[in-house]
Design brief:
- By secondary structure, chain A is mainly alpha-helical.
- Chain A is built from 32 helices and no strands.
- In chain A, helix 8 (148-166) runs antiparallel to helix 9, helix 22 runs antiparallel to helix 23 and helix 26 (481-493) packs antiparallel against helix 27 (497-503).
- The longest helix of chain A has 27 residues, at 3-29.
- Chain A starts with a helix and ends with a helix.
- In chain A, 45% of the residues are buried.
- By secondary structure, chain B is mostly beta strands.
- Chain B has two domains: 3-133, Immunoglobulins (Immunoglobulin-like), CATH 2.60.40.10; 140-488, Neuraminidase (6 Propeller), CATH 2.120.10.
- In chain B, strands 1, 3, 5, 6, 8, 9 and 10 form a seven-stranded mixed sheet that branches. A five-stranded mixed sheet of chain B has the order 14-15-16-17-35, with helices on one face.
- The longest helix of chain B has 27 residues, at 3-29.
- The chains are: A mainly alpha, B mainly beta.
- The interface between A and B is large, with 50 and 42 residues.
């Protein structure tokens, strides 16, 4: 084997390893994070949809991006698309660098690492990858043109359309072809070419803003990217985007820049790569976010056991995780027995506060849907769609709640959008079947059950720290078990024992065969304080609970002069009881 | 030329191409052998048996009956006809031929003949007769496009649509003003050179266009509840009546209702554009009553407004608005006596959005069971009041869903109104012809180039206003003013 072959083999092996790392990083560590990109948009095969993107520079790119993101329906598929894009970008950069006789095999990995850093954030999404891919392919096409004059004219012709199609990415294109002309063109007038490109590129956003688009000056420059509250991911994508022109510039200045395939080069590259991997994990990777998105995914699939399993492993305390955990506890019939087996933080973990943002309406409507509070579920889904734009989750929720409400005209409007997609067409077809044959609704166990719970007697929806309308929901449907359990959970979590005691009588009419464990625990406390017997007729406190309380009280007495010690001693065996929550919830923090 | 215009040109070219193919197909096919089939076709939008202005853009529609092929022949009274064939039921008329045919048939009937090819056989369905009115409609419609949401908004803007074709251009969009809310565009006597609108939050203020100049004022004073909303220009062009209010939104729990918008406090005030001064009086700003929706009589001598006795807003179903009228002396800038025009509360209903025809004879209003924010009330219908005889009647333009904001054309022969009749949620503008006898004809929906447009469109047409010419404003012109400080208005109490 010759030295060149060994070098090629090593390079290919390392390249393979890099992309394997890329794939693993995005599939295993970021799979659900990527899948959420898909949940954040809705690609439709529809002309109105297509043309709606063209009111800003870069609109076509956003459309194209949405096209690819629609396939992010599984962690492995999403990671495969991301890795494939990265690979094509890598090849494209390699070709450009080769054109410039820039012999730095591993340099193309650097922008890919920054792209990975950008892609690790929810706020920027996949657009930088799509943008880079498109631009680099165009640059490759440009440098393939051998005739200087033809190439120059092509460059001139491409700048404006590319700006309209890709926005800011056209600047990178212009920069690359300017540097290419300066570095490579043998013609004496290459500086004139470059100057012409430069002037055209500088004028394009200005002229477009004044004659074509209704956009702000900032948008004229950065569209289709936007600066979120934390702009770091945008900067990472800028670095990735403009790193290639920098390399071209380097090749222009250092004509004979050659990287010898020696120990020094390999070590330096290795250190650089390790540093970038470190930066990726240190500054960009968000394992909690991926876990949160996985929980969210399981909620959407109604895999409640899986939700509880994942919630149990979730590090720290997140309001959304608490909210989903409690929903899963109710759905698995464990809310009133195992509420305190999981971290709790008052009623904040039962429902999300109403806020006019992209997050709360999007996730917060879930509880209303399961409560059968169809108007409120519709409202939250509508607000989510307004805040985030059209997305599959909100549309499905709007369609199904409209069906529950018997508002078939509006349900059809939303199913029409779902029908224009690749992956929600089937679901839309099913909804339309229900719309066209309302008697079939009764055959759908979930919708039929929830339809039974829709309020018939009007009330004005309200939200407070203690309540989201449980009383009127129960007044409408005394057998709305979820409303009851959530109301009781809110009393327990807010330590409102009077409210709890006043509603205990509902156990009987809701068909409970025994008193749930946490209710027993609360009854013991309430009776101990008020000396009132509130155990509903026909029910009793189980001997096991009485025995446990006896033990609890003994340990508590043992450490009565040292509460910190009491927390430690009781936390082990009684941390999952209402008693412990009631007594030490504040101390626990 | 804006991008939108360029894009429209491209679409136009596409249409010409399609039309050429269609015409070619028709040319090749020759005369149809058909059987009469006495059945009405189902079209969306429903443009059958309506009265239309001769200057309206083509009424493109989709035939929803299933067929292998469709053909529509539009015949004028003088023999001219347009024939359109389609494979998917979408009937798109060529613009220039449509215009020529309508011009030729002013004041006459035109007929739509429908031919559907079913099971290999052409069937002639029942024809539809439409009347082309002699009076044109004002050529521009200005509206706000916004999702019919609850509290959240994203992109919104005030747009103007040329009714003679399909051009829509923005007057202002919130993407140019930090995403803020904007509303209440209002015109003086349908005139495009005297108008105003509001912006909220950052860049907040009332933007007033007079004689080609835009000024930005802050009509909130220490003595008034809020900045002015729901404007009504005095026909003289100097004064604008406004509502000042505190408002809450509540959300219903039952499927038949969704939102309740309630004023918890409300008064009227008059803004003097000449002096940048806010004027109010106890007679239009009573603490014991809720006043809202002011509108001037065409001669400017009276201000009509809705007024309800004060109630706790939680008893919103008991808040019922009467229609009152108060005299106004523009020279002395003084109010006179107040009259009750419609004693609605006593009769168990509520009045909102009074609008008087330019000839001063008819007042159209929304009638609902309670409250004033009728777009969320399915029971809201447009009613008419003959101001000479006080006869109240319901024109045949309503549906079983909400009909709400409406206004007259400058000629008084046309009216535009908002309706949610299609799906119960998204508001669409409808036009109705009011003939010389005062009869309102079957309304028709704002036509679009693509007849399926409304199926895919998820914004509401809010506050549709007919205007005599294009408003000479666009987001680029307004962007410069947006960032300037609003000039504070002064306050004066009058009697």
């Amino acid at each position: 084997m010759t030295f060149t072959n060994t070098r090629r083999l090593t390079a290919n092996l390392l390249t393979g390893l890099f992309f394997l790392f890329y794939f693993i990083y995005f599939s295993i560590l970021n799979g659900y994070h990527l899948m959420f990109f898909e949940q954040d948009q809705l690609f439709r095969f529809n002309w109105h949809y297509f043309f709606s993107f063209f009111d800003k520079p870069g609109g076509f790119l956003v459309w194209l991006n949405a096209f690819f993101v629609q396939f992010f329906v599984h962690p492995w598929v999403a990671a495969a698309v991301v890795t494939l894009f990265a690979f094509i970008i890598f090849i494209s950069i390699r070709r450009i660098l080769r054109f410039h006789h820039f012999d730095g095999y591993f340099f193309p990995f650097i922008p890919l690492m920054f792209l990975a850093m950008s892609l690790s954030s929810q706020s920027v999404g996949f657009i930088p990858s799509t943008g880079m891919l498109v631009i680099l392919l165009v640059v490759n096409g440009y440098i393939a043109v051998k005739n200087n004059k033809v190439r120059f004219v092509l460059g001139l012709l491409l700048i404006v359309p590319l700006y309209m199609l890709t926005g800011i990415f056209a600047f990178a294109f212009a920069l690359m072809i300017i540097l290419t002309e300066i570095a490579k063109s043998p013609q004496r007038d290459r500086f004139i070419f470059a100057a012409a490109y430069l002037v055209l590129m500088a004028l394009t956003p200005v002229l477009m803003r004044y004659f074509v688009y209704f956009i702000t000056a900032e948008n004229a420059v950065v569209a289709p990217l936007e600066f979120p509250d934390n702009p770091a991911p945008v900067y990472y994508s800028f670095i990735a985007l403009f790193f290639v022109p920098v390399l071209i510039l380097a090749s222009a200045f250092f004509k004979k820049l050659q990287f010898s395939w020696n120990f020094k080069y390999i070590i330096t590259t290795g250190i650089l790569f390790v540093a970038l991997v470190f930066a990726l994990f240190r500054f960009s990777y968000d394992s909690r976010n991926n876990k949160l998105q996985e929980i969210d995914y399981q909620v959407q699939k109604s895999n409640w056991e899986e939700v509880l399993k994942l919630a149990g492993k979730y590090p720290g305390r997140n309001q959304l995780v608490l909210y989903y955990t409690n929903l899963a506890l109710y759905q698995t019939g464990r809310m009133s027995d195992q509420l305190f087996y999981y971290p709790q933080s008052g009623s904040k973990g039962l429902w999300l506060e109403w806020k006019r943002n992209e997050i709360n309406p999007y996730y917060g409507g879930e509880i209303f849907y399961h409560l059968g509070f169809s108007n409120e579920a519709f409202r939250w889904a509508f607000e989510a769609m307004e805040a985030k734009g059209m997305n599959p989750r909100s549309l499905k929720r709007l369609a199904v709640t409209a069906i529950m409400n018997g508002q078939y005209d509006i349900a059809l409007k939303y199913t029409r959008f779902l029908k224009q997609t690749l992956f929600y067409k089937k679901q839309a077809g099913y909804y339309e079947k229900l719309i066209n044959n309302p008697e079939l609704i009764e055959d759908d166990p979930e919708i039929a059950a929830l339809k039974q719970l829709i309020p018939q007697k009007d009330f004005i929806s309200f939200m407070s720290q203690d309540d989201i309308g449980f009383y009127p929901l129960l007044e409408n449907h005394p057998k709305n078990r979820m409303a009851f359990e959530y109301m009781m959970a809110s009393f327990l979590l807010n330590k409102n024992l009077n409210g709890f005691a006043a509603n205990l009588y509902r156990l009987k009419e809701l068909g409970y065969s025994r008193i749930p464990v946490h209710f027993e625990e609360a009854i013991i406390i309430f009776t101990g304080v008020t000396k009132k017997d509130i155990v509903p007729e026909g029910f009793s406190i189980s001997p096991a609970t009485q025995q446990r309380f006896h033990t609890y009280a003994e340990i508590l007495n043992m450490y009565s002069d040292n509460m910190n010690m009491a927390v430690k001693a009781l936390g082990r065996d009684f941390g999952n009881t209402f008693w412990f929550y009631m007594q030490f919830n504040n101390l626990e923090k | 030329m804006s991008f939108i215009e360029s894009y429209d040109m491209l679409k136009q070219l596409k249409n010409y191409f399609l039309i050429s193919i269609i015409l070619l197909a028709i040319g090749c096919s020759g005369k149809l052998n058909y059987k009469d089939f006495s059945k009405d076709v189902t079209c969306f939008p429903d443009y059958q048996n309506v009265a239309i202005p001769s200057n309206i853009a083509p009424l493109n529609f989709t035939i929803r009956d299933t067929a292998q092929q469709y053909k529509v022949v539009l015949k004028g009274s003088l023999g001219k006809e347009i024939s359109v064939k389609s494979d998917d039921g979408r009937i798109i008329f060529p613009v220039s031929k449509w215009k020529a045919l309508l011009k030729e048939n002013r004041g006459k009937e035109i007929v739509f003949e429908f031919y559907l090819k079913q099971k290999g056989e052409w069937l002639k369905y029942n024809s539809a007769r439409n009347f082309v009115a002699a009076e044109d409609i004002d050529p521009y419609l200005v509206y706000r496009l916004i999702e019919p949401g609850y509290e959240t908004w994203n992109k919104m803007g005030i747009y103007q649509r040329n009714l003679e074709n399909f051009d829509e251009t923005p007057v202002m969009i919130n993407e140019m003003s930090d995403g803020n809310c904007m509303n209440c565009h209002s015109f003086c006597k349908n005139s495009s050179d005297r108008m105003l609108f509001h912006m909220r939050a950052q860049n907040g203020g009332t933007y007033i266009l007079t004689d080609g100049k835009v000024s930005k004022v802050d009509t909130k004073t220490d003595s008034t509840l809020s900045a002015g909303v729901y404007p009504a220009w005095h026909p003289g062009g100097r004064f604008v009546a406004f509502l000042v209010n505190r408002i809450v939104q509540s959300f219903h729990a039952i499927e038949k209702r969704k939102i309740e918008v309630i004023d918890t406090l409300s008064d009227l005030m008059i803004y003097d554009t000449k002096l940048n001064k806010v004027l109010t009086s106890a007679s239009i700003a009573s603490p014991a009553r809720y006043e809202t929706f002011p509108v001037w009589s065409p001669d400017g001598s009276s201000l009509y407004f809705c007024s309800a006795g004060f109630q706790n807003y939680r008893n919103f179903e008991d808040i019922k608005y009467d229609l009152l009228k108060i005299n106004f002396d523009t020279v002395a800038v003084k109010f006179g006596a107040t009259d009750t025009v419609i004693a609605a509360a006593r009769n168990g209903f509520s009045v909102s959005f009074p609008r008087i025809s330019p000839d001063g004879k008819t007042l159209m209003f929304c009638k609902t069971a309670y409250g004033n924010f009728t777009i969320w009330h399915d029971d809201s219908d447009i009613y008419a009041l003959d101001l000479a005889t006080s006869r109240m009647y319901m024109p045949e333009i309503n549906s079983n869903r909400s009909e709400s904001y409406h206004n007259w054309s400058s000629s008084g022969r046309w009216m535009v109104f908002s309706s949610r009749r299609i799906d119960g949620l998204y508001t669409r503008p409808y036009f109705t012809y009011i003939d010389k006898e005062g009869k309102a004809h079957k309304p028709f929906l704002l036509p679009q180039k693509d007849p399926d447009f409304y199926m895919d469109f998820v914004k509401s047409y809010n506050v549709p206003e007919l205007v005599k010419a294009k408003v000479d404003l666009d987001p680029r012109k307004l962007e410069k003013i947006v960032k300037t400080e609003a000039v504070k208005s002064s306050f004066e109490r009058i009697f």
